[in-house]
Amino acid sequence: MPLPFSSIPAGAAMPDITLQAFMAQLTIGLIGGCFYALLSMGLAIIFGLLNIINFTHGAQFMMAAFLAWIGLTQIGPWLGYPDFQVSFWVALVLAPLCVAVFGMAIERLLLARLYHLDHLYGLLLTFGVALVMEGGFRYAFGVSGQGYEPPEILQGPVDVGFMLLPKYRIFVVVASLLICFGTWFLFERTKLGAYLRAGTENPRLLQAFGINVPVMITLTYGFGVALAGIAGVLAAPIMQVTPLMGGNLLNIVFAVVVIGGLGSILGSMLTGLALGLIEGLTKVVYPEASTVVVFVIMALALLVRPAGLFGRDV
Amino acid sequence: MSTTLKIFLVLAAFALVVPFVPGLIYPVFVMKVMCYGLFACAFNLLLGFTGLVSFSHAAFLGSAGYVTGALMIRFGAHPLGMPAALVLGVAASLLVGLAIGGLAIRRRGIYFAMITLALSQIVYFLAVQFRWTGGEDGLQGIPRGNLFGLDLTSDTTMYYVMLALFSAGFLFVDRIVHSPFGQILQAVRDNEARATSLGYDTDRFKLLAFVLSAGVAGYAGAMKALVFQLVSLNDVSLHTSTEVVLMTLLGGVGTIFGPLVGAALVVGLQNYLATIGDLVTVVIGLIFIVCVSFFRRGFVGEFLHVRRRRAERRARAAPRPEPPPNDAPVAEPA
């Protein structure tokens, strides 16, 4: 009897894999991994100090992508100057900044009121904010994907010997890795980072030493959100800009975070990159499973190492 | 007779007359509230009485719905088809609950919630991939069949069968909460370390609560598949998992009737707001924010809180029961 539950045709052979296709999928995987790394790092930073999982992360990622798209294609006609555009480079700075300010306002006005309660409430609140943001963008712009042209200097392919790679994708990988490294450096090797780690360890003692912990928490939240914003702008030319782009990604990032643990910035970064690559490989071998391979790995990791690969249990 | 049972009997009596009074409430609406109400009760068993947050309850609702629906399509005409499909649907959700719960209880707190969320994505993926679930189309035109020969195609007959099924499910949840087992769950919720120190294997109790909750959610899902004769991907989606959180929160976490009230409010709101399309998400999100920020007890919880406070005030205002000392002058009552 053939397997009734399977979508693989009976007796299907392994697909023919050329080196070209293999490398192409691996690159796509690497880029996905960069986004996972940026997003899970932001989640880890926020979790470290606020002790909440930021369910708004996906919506903030989406909001930055939308702001970049609005800047490039919409704002000119809105203002009555059809030629006016906010370029990619300006958006790369401005959009994460806007999203961070918006995030910090929410932290101050709503989240800060819940710190003395069970962390569940913080989680539910950020979730509600995500719903409002996604619903709002859906109402304003619909669900269909919007295209975003990368800047001219990054258009076109580069010959890297064995294959042609779009310049923009190389840029995304390099930029993400630089940002990841910069964040790691900031947190692990600077005085400010030491304060932040001290705040994770014991906020009350830190406050007793004269550090304004509430302001530090707000700024940290803004920083984590800005990382999501940068990822969003970087993703705009690669993914379709839609209100749903963040929510879908965030589910995977949660699994990444469970595997890597929220305890370490380096850990969440490496796990993100590795899982992106594994996802790319799965696309070559068995494309249908590529959307769940991260979740399956998470289940396996829980069986083998319940505390996470780099994490400490909470 | 306990207060819970009294309130329940009043509600049931009201529900019994609904089909006879046209224009009072649309019976199909009541059936929808019963399905989602039971679903929220199942969720509340976990969140309110065990202190575990799950974002996977749609997976249980949906998996039971899919199994029941698929079986009804094949064997619906058989006199035992409907009960068998219902039981097997619940069995499916128990298995899914065991798998997800078994993995998730390995971690605590926030990780627990994220694991349930991620694992329920696998269930969603399987529902898209399998052939017997109908993929993107879901299962449509599920026959209601018959119960031991009793034809269920009429809405009124179906209504009373559903009312009976709902009552059984609701009283089952109430029974669990008030059983010694339920007391242990609440002890785990309030102070897990202390429960462990008293010799309870808390992981086992949490897993059992999780599986029971999954089973009741599945029971609600099977009922829903029979009433509405369709199961769609929406039933296994994160959207449904979060709706049940909102219902429970809005009605009152950790109260017996809260989830029912919350389900009625959310289902009613959806009917009422169906015309505004995408803005529904915004409204639901705003309710979430308001609820979490200012209204954490929910409607039923707030009601109970006000009543308790009033009782306390009355107890304080009442004269002290102990008699005054013999040599003291007895005060004249004002």
TrEMBL record, chain A:
Keywords in alphabetical order: Amino-acid transport, Cell membrane, Membrane, Transmembrane, Transmembrane helix, Transport
Source organism superkingdom: Bacteria
Transmembrane regions listed in the UniProt entry: 22-49, 61-80, 86-107, 119-141, 168-187, 208-232, 252-278, 285-304
Keyword Nuclease found: no
Localization, UniProt: Cell membrane
Family membership: Belongs to the binding-protein-dependent transport system permease family. LivHM subfamily.
The protein's name: High-affinity branched-chain amino acid transport system permease protein LivH
Organism, as annotated: Methylobacterium trifolii
Taxonomic lineage from the root: Bacteria, Pseudomonadati, Pseudomonadota, Alphaproteobacteria, Hyphomicrobiales
From TrEMBL, chain B:
Annotated spans, Disordered: 314-334
Keywords: Cell membrane, Membrane, Transmembrane, Transmembrane helix
Cell inner membrane keyword on record: no
Recorded topology in the membrane: Multi-pass membrane protein
Chief place of localization: membrane
Protein name: Branched-chain amino acid ABC transporter permease
Residue ranges crossing the lipid bilayer per the database entry: 6-29, 36-60, 80-103, 110-130, 157-177, 207-232, 244-269, 276-295
Record has Cell membrane as a keyword: yes
Compartments where located: Cell membrane
InterPro entries from the UniProt entry: ABC_transp_permease, LivM-like
